[in-house]
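Worked example 2:
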Amino acid sequence: MSRIRSHRLGLLVLVLVVLVAACGGGDDEVDTGTGAGDATEVPEHPEGSTMAEIQEAGTITVGTKFDQRLFGQTNPRTGEVEGFDVEIAKLIVEAIGPDVEIEFVETPSAIRETAIQEGTVQMVVATYTINDARKEKIDFAGPYYVAGQDIMVPTGNPLDIGGLDDLNGKRVCSVSGSTPLQNVRTNAPGAEVTEFDVYTKCADAMRDGRVDAVTTDNVILLGLVEQYGAEVFEVVGDPFTTEPYGIGIPKGDDQFRTFINDRLEEIYANGEWTEAFKRTVGAVTDEIPEPPPVDRY
């Protein structure tokens, strides 16, 4: 509540008290006009469920990236993390309880499974591709978005890189623990691979001439182009994989997974997903995709 609003509320209460006293009703309760109908409805969750525990605690820890343009990046002016992943997390937590606070924890690609398994975070929303190897360690809800791996090169494409095969013999950068890094190692074994913990370091390395190309999901690359400038980088524009982004949670928590999937379908239907996309990724593309169907397997 703002200071001005608090001050006005204080004056209103004072006036009411004076009026009641003047009418000789000093022992009667004053009806402030607030009631159950004015309060935000609090959802009910199954006893003992993760949702109920989070609601009771009043807080949840969510892993995301802090340097991922458009999806999860710290705003230097406000110190708040912003992006599509952040918006999706907020929409999910909102359905757990309107007063639940989110603590966002920086969770780079290489530590996402570890953070979930060790309980550092309660869920991860961080451009997190669903795959079989990861499902051995954690569970996924979603997907809530589908990207595709592509290649970013210096503007003008001086080495004429047109696709995955052209990365052989080139100096290529991606991020540790990511599926794009594994795809390069497997499908372009002749590439000289450099890996960092975050993609901005890859971008800096290419800007400085230390690598020839950066590869990851196309929307992440579009964010880097927007950040560094179209006169510096460009995207080849030929995605060669399908990358379904999911929400990582501890393995075996079927109730929580079902709850998140139900909530995703709800925000698909009511338009909140589309509005979140427009506010974030929509800054660099006019194409608004259809949200993908969730996989309940």
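Residues 149-235 form a domain with the D-Maltodextrin-Binding Protein; domain 2 fold (CATH 3.40.190.10). Residues 1-39 have pLDDT under 50 and may be disordered.
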